[in-house]
Amino acid sequence: MTTQPFLPDPSLYNEDLAPIPQEKRDWTWLNMATVWMGMVHNIVVYEAAAGLMAIGFSAWQCLEIVAVAYVVLFLAMGLNARAGTRYGIPFCVLIRSAFGPSGAQLPVILRGFCAIFWFSVQAYAATQAVDAIAGTIWPVWKTAAAGVLGMPLHRWGALVVVWLLHAWIMNHGVTRIRNFELIAGPLVIVIGALATVWALKVGHGPGPLFAVPGRLHGWNFALAFAGGVTGMIGMWATFAVNIPDLSRFVRSQRDQVIGQAIGLPVTALVFTPMAIITTSATVLLFGRAIWNPVDLLLTLDKPLVTVLGGGVIVLATLSVNVVANIMPACYDLINLSPEKLNFHRASFLVLGIGLLFAPWLWFSEAESIYRVLDIISGLLGPVTGIMLADYFILRARHLDVPDLYRRDGCYAASNGWNPAAIAAFLLGGFCANLGLVWPRAVWIGHLSWFVGLAVAAGLYLEFSRWTALGRKPRQV
C-alpha cells in the first residue's frame, strides 16, 4: 500500500474528476435501472427496427438481433463499469491507466466529439416535437416561416425551448439528473405501453408487421444478422467506453450489475416490440409504416394526442441526452482543462458547441450522419478492448489511484504517452474499418466493433509485453 501523500497535478485533477468516496456513492440498482430506461427508449432506437425490417428481417428476427446485441452490451458495460464502481473514478481518469495521462486525451476527445454530436442530433429531434406541440396549440406559431441559417423562425423558437430544458436539468448537477431519470425512465415506458395497447386494439392483435416473414436466408442471413447486431451495438459503442462515468456513483458492484441487467437488455426487449406493434397500427390506419414518432403524431391529426405524445418524445429525448451525451461530454471537457472547467461550466459549453453542429442541416443527410458515426464507433470498439485488457489482465483489477492524477507516476509511460495503447488503438481502428479502403474486406464492416475490440486488446497486451510499460502498479 502506498504511503505517499495525495498530491495531484492540477492539470489532471479537480473536484469533479476526483474519486468519489465510498460513503458518497448513493446510487442503488434502481437508480442505475431507471437511468438505462431513460436512455433505451429514444427515437433512434425506436427507428432502428425499421432499418432491420427494411433489410429483410422479420419482426421476430429483429427481436433476436436486439436480444443478442444488448446481451453483448450488457457484458461489455458490466465489465467496464467495475473499475468505476470500485474506485469512484470517471472514464477520462480511468483511461489514463492504459494510454498515459497525455495519450488519454486521444480517446477522450474522440468520445467527447461523438457525445456532443449525438446530443445535437437528439436535441433536434426533440425540437421537432416541441415545434409540433406549439403549432398545434397556437396555429399562428407556424406563420413565423422566415428562414434564418437554413431553419424557419418557429423552429428556432422550439430549439431555444429544448436547449433551455437541457440547461435546467443540468443546472444542479448529478443529483438532479439522478432524480429526473428516476421519474422519466419508468414514465416513458408506461406511456409506451399505453400506445402499444392502442395499437393492439387498432390491429386486433400484434399487427401486420409481425406476420411478414423474413426474406434473408443462408449466408446472406448470417452476414446481415451479424451486421444488425453490430449496428445495434454501434448505437451504444460510445457508452460502452464511458460507463464508469455512471458506475462511479453506484454503491456496489451488485447494484450496478442488477441495475444494468434490468435497464439494458430487459428494457430493450420490452421497448422494441412496442415500437414494432405501434408501427403495425400505422400500416392498417394509413397504408404505410410510419416509424418517425413526430410524423405519426402529425398524421394522426388529433391535437390532444399531438401535445401529449410530443411531450413524451421531449421527455424521452431529455432522459437519454443528459445521461448518455451531455454528462460524459462534460467530464471529457473538464479533463482537457480541469483548472478552468467544472461540471456546471462544462455543461453549458456542451450546449453551446452542440448548437454549432447545426443539426437541422444534417437531418437532410441522414446517411452521412450514420456513416461518420459508424466509423467513430469502429474506433471506440478498440478503446473498449484496450480498457478491458488493461484493467482485467495487465493490472489484474488493481489501480494506484493517486498515480492516475500524476504525470510522473507509474502510468506516465513515455512522457505521458503509452505507445503500446496508441499503436493498438490505431491498428485496431484500421482493422475495424478496413472494408472502407479494401472492397474484399467489406464483410468486416458487419463485425467492425468485435474486430476492433479483439484486435486492439490482443495487440495492446503484446505491445505492452514488448515495451515493459505495462507493469502492475502498487496494489491499493
From TrEMBL:
It is found in: Membrane. The lineage of its organism: Bacteria, Pseudomonadati, Pseudomonadota, Alphaproteobacteria, Acetobacterales. This is Cytosine/purines uracil thiamine allantoin permease. InterPro entries: Pur-cyt_permease, Uracil/uridine/allantoin_perm. Pfam families: Transp_cyt_pur (PF02133). The chain crosses the membrane at residues 62-81, 116-141, 153-170, 182-200, 220-241, 262-287, 307-334, 346-363, 375-394, 415-437, 443-463. One of its GO terms (cellular component) is plasma membrane. Keywords: Membrane, Transmembrane, Transmembrane helix. Belongs to the purine-cytosine permease (2.A.39) family. It comes from the Bacteria. Gene3D superfamilies: Hydantoin permease. GO terms for molecular function: nucleobase transmembrane transporter activity. CDD domains: SLC-NCS1sbd_YbbW-like. It is a multi-pass membrane protein. It comes from Acidomonas methanolica NBRC 104435. The keyword Protein biosynthesis does not apply.
